[in-house]
Amino acid sequence: MDATAGIVGQVLGALIGALVVTGALVWSLRRDPRSLRNGFLAVLAAHTLLGLLAISISRSRVLETLADAVALVVWGVIGLGLLLLPLLLVVDGILMVRRESRSLGNALSLLTGLASIVLPVVLLELVRHENPVTGTVAVGLLAALVCIGLLFLVFVTQTALYAWLARRAPARAVIVLGAGLAGGEVPPLLAARLRRAVAAVEERAERAGTIPIVASGGQGADEPYPEGEAMAVWLRRTGVAASDVLVEDRSRTTEENLRYSAQLLRRRGIPEPYLVVTNDYHAPRAAMLARTLGIDAQAIGCRTALYYWPSAYLREFVAVMAGQRFLLALSGLVVAGLMVATWLSLSAA
């Protein structure tokens, strides 16, 4: 009887935990789908649901055997993926550097792939010496990698959730973010954003009526005229009515794109919500930035060339984390605390 009561208590506790976390996730998504908080809650919800599933399965030998087989396959696929990932990142990084400009941002996939190969070797070498200094450094390095991995998991989860939720977001205006001109003309990457904006307007026209498109982008040092003007010409050439195209031609950054475009729309008497169109890898950060600026806008993205995506996505992760001071401070405290504890433990041994 006591054993049965204990099992029932475990299942009930796990169920309550799963319901609480899942409920918090649903509330958070309804409150603001742009918040990084949703990624944390989604990861925690998945963890509690898997815990509930594990407790339930453990009461049946058949289900437990089946679950073990499924877990073996899943972990095998994950293990194979982790072994191949560094090589794929290196190959993609080399391709990225060759096709695009040689910058730190474009080399992120290459650097990440090389680090994934080198760091395990460094950790093994540090642990092999078995002294307080190398042991402390090894623990600090491993703790830092775990923190980065968890933050990246949260970021991936949030971006996937957000992309799914934002695709049908309502809008009274669409803002297209500039991406630079090539020889004074709209390049393929920017043209893809503009096509996605036109499609977004068509998808929402029946229920929202006339939806203006803001072509947002200032003039770069190597550009003959502002990006916004070139984008507006492209839109009019493809059949968008001139009266439905607004030009924002002062911005130099994504933050200015959003702020100046929102100001332009408000001056024209066009209320929120707005829809921001950019590339798929950039949409979640653009949405987070709109949230920070107090603009009621969601963001969607057009597809990006596969070779370009890894470095661009890693660049977005770094940019988002750079603005998360609390998370960075908390991660630093965890790493420092583990290093101090390791040093004290090994020194006393």
TrEMBL record:
Gene3D superfamilies hit by this protein: HUPs (3.40.50.620)
InterPro entries, per the entry: Cell_Envelope_Assoc (IPR051599), DUF218 (IPR003848), Rossmann-like_a/b/a_fold (IPR014729)
- Give the GO terms filed under biological process for this record: Gram-negative-bacterium-type cell wall biogenesis; peptidoglycan metabolic process
Q: Please, which domain of life does this record's source organism belong to?
A: Bacteria
**DUF218 domain: residues covered:** 173-318
Keyword Transmembrane carried by entry = yes
- Pfam families xrefs: DUF218
UniProt-listed CDD domains: YdcF-like (cd06259)
Gene Ontology CC: one annotated term: plasma membrane
Keyword annotations for this protein? Membrane, Transmembrane, Transmembrane helix
- So where does this one cross the membrane? 6-27, 39-57, 69-95, 107-127, 139-165, 326-346
Q: Which PANTHER family match?
A: ENVELOPE BIOGENESIS FACTOR ELYC (PTHR30336:SF4), INNER MEMBRANE PROTEIN, PROBABLE PERMEASE (PTHR30336)
Protein name according to UniProt = DUF218 domain-containing protein
What is the scientific name of the source organism?
A: Blastococcus haudaquaticus
